[in-house]
Amino acid sequence: MKILERYFFVNIAQAVAFVLVAFLALAAFMDLTGELPAVGKGGYMIQHALLYVLMLVPGNMYRVMPIAALLGTIYTMAQFAQTSEFTIMRASSMSTRMAGGILFKIGIVFVVLTFIFGELITPRTAPLAERLRLSAKGATLSAEFRSGMWTKDTIHEGGQKGPVTGSRFFNARQISADGKLLDVRLYEFDNSMRMRSLITAASAVFSGNHTWRLQDVTETQFTNSRTLPAPGTPLPNGQTIQNRFGQDTAAVGTRKLASLDLESEITPKILSVSRSDPERMSANELAVYTRHLAENRQETERFKIAFWRKLIAPLSIFVMMALALPFGYLQVRSGGVSFKIFIGIMLGVSFMLVDNLFSHIGMLSTWPAFMTAAAPSLLYLLLGLGALRWVERH
């Protein structure tokens, strides 16, 4: 049995590797085509574009591995059927359950390989590729909005574990390639959502331990009238009351500082995750960012679905290989190898379309994130089992 397992593994691994290389080459060519218009602008040259595309290969491999496993296994099973090898194996007491067990063991190798690329390699190479691209262009990163990147965190009293005293909206107009924030604005509110301070800074650098060092700072404090001392009394920062506006916002005090240390839940990791494509993030990064959004009462559904898809995607390789097993029972008269490969391509494309469709439907409906991510794989697993039962009977 070990000899048979080794024979299956060698043939399937060779076929999957061939398909994988073809898909990766096609994806790299498309990525390079998209980068060519930017070549020659600033310091971005062709070698930078090639290196950028090369760093995207691990992420592309993670996405195409299930389809490569499907086509490679279909090709191998079709070859076995064409040469009657699979018929001889069945006549030698190899049951369908045994054949499925062999494919399952081979699938474990592909799942582990996919997990390594998706969880360990891609989350490191994708940000590195983006920094390389920005550095070569001499540009800074801005978010989707014209006003830059926005995020939100909570303000705690006496450190990160203290009681919540308010919320803070964090805005950076630009982010340099080395992670430095430029043109920073912080809007702080109390628990009643009354604005209590506005902080602007020319730049901000993360100094560790949830602390940002702000440079060239201007802080404007808004003091509530109910706790406001008499006019002319110095405020805690040494300023005096300048204006009175009414009961809710009675006074404004302003001070300028060369630097200011700000303690915040926001870290460079959260910032990098917030502007990254969820498909290129690890499950751990998605879990951390989803928890951050939930704590700040922000929408989390998109990242919950991405998290479960990240966990389930490698397991879909088992589903793809289960879909390929029935092709070993189809004899040459049922269609040649090329026809079976064509069917496999259609199955793979339809699986990707259904998977994307369910992820969009899940964000529009109230479906649980796990069911949204798992439903396509479950549907195609039932399809594979149904096809296997049909070919066994006929």
Automatic annotation (TrEMBL):
Domain of life per record: Bacteria
Coiled coil (residue ranges): none
Membrane topology: Multi-pass membrane protein
Keywords noted in UniProt: Cell membrane, Membrane, Transmembrane, Transmembrane helix
Places the protein is found: Cell membrane
InterPro entries reported in the protein's UniProt record: LptG (IPR030923), LptG/LptF_permease (IPR005495)
Sequence intervals crossing the membrane: 7-30, 102-121, 311-331, 337-358, 370-391
The protein's name: LPS export ABC transporter permease LptG
Primary gene name: lptG
